[in-house]
Amino acid sequence: MSASKEPQSPWLTWSQDPTDRVPYQVFLDPAIYEREQERLFRGPIWAYVGLEAEIPQPQDFKATFLGDTPIVINRDKDGALHAFVNRCAHRGALVCRELRGNRARHTCVYHQWTYDLKGNLVGVPFKNGLGTTAGYPDDFQTTGHGLQKLLIASYRGLIFVSYAHEVEPLEDYLGPAMRSHIDQVFNRPIRVLGHGRQFVSANWKLYAENVRDPYHASLLHLFHMTFGTYRSSQGGGVVFDSKARHTLMQSYRRNEADEVAAYKGTEIRTYQAKYTLADASLLQGRPEFPGLSIQTIFPSLVIQQIQNTLAVRHIIPRGPEQFELIFTFFGYADDDAEMQTIRRKQANLVGPAGLISMEDGHAAEIVQQAIVRDKDAASVVLMGGRGIANEESLVTETGIRGFWRYYRDLMGFSRSADVAKESTSWTHASAVSQ
What we know:
Oligomer: single chain
Low-confidence stretches: 1-9, 417-434
Structural class: alpha+beta
Mean pLDDT: 88
Distance between the termini: 7 Å
Shape: globular
Largest sheet: 7 strands, antiparallel
Strand order of the largest sheet: 3-12-11-6-5-4-7
């Protein structure tokens, strides 16, 4: 068999350290995507899957995903959280086909195997046969055929699950810097206001880069720049956890003159002083937070606070070149009616048709389209230098470099020490068969 017909190896070596170059193959290679599902999403990480406020009552459930694996999270009759893979132990069908609801048991529609809210098999039709027809063998035990159970934990109402029993405690995984901001946003009981779902024809990691990249926002998003919801000339910066896998980007308003001075006289198209809002009430909220914040928790959670609109975004891989983005908008349980109206109106800033974030999905797609035949090339991630550290600047790509360093270690891709330093491209560490 010729080498060209062999599947591509997922084993890569980055030739640069730190990760200031990103090989395009990581956005294209089906073998790398498969490896992500095993080593990353089923590896020693905690993955966000939902909010406790989405399943507040005993027996409430939600169907969602860990990586691309369908799972169910629910509360048992005592209110305790449980998570399991949404795959019947009999013939592999989805057990739970609804997005959310409330029920005492989960029954697979195919042959009606029934499970309790802890994932234990409790019912098998015709187990002992029907009439003179034999049922299951005498040694068949329901205890050996439950749903595959996952670790589950929550912090401030954010629910995370993990396949790995050796994973560190959730609070340690988040780290003090990230927990501090989560404590501020989830400072009291919340109320879910609604959901938005967006399908993007691009690799999920292009969006993971996007939300760790503060300086694109004032260049790509006309609304941000023109109406001052975010500008790179504002105060703020980027903070990491101890392993640089999670990031917190915050910006703070200065004054209008100082903020726009850096853009006047330039050809930056996203500053359009001639534009005004037909409905100025869109941005007339209440003082609540000191600025804007975008927090990422590796691998698939984004916590967003823009003006008074609050949301969590769940990134779900749907194959090497597709992902789904689920926005869950929320407010606080003690919000008055006017505040609920403000939050719902400002939800128009983000989401699939949002005045700000609709460009992000398009940006990911035009990258995916452009790199399709150039997996041997690489992107350049040098804004702010080559370091990976907290920065008091919004013009930086340090968050992207931190993401790739942690990703690379989890995936088992070697670093540059063993690679010829003069090379500027990544190489396969193991050759395909000849």
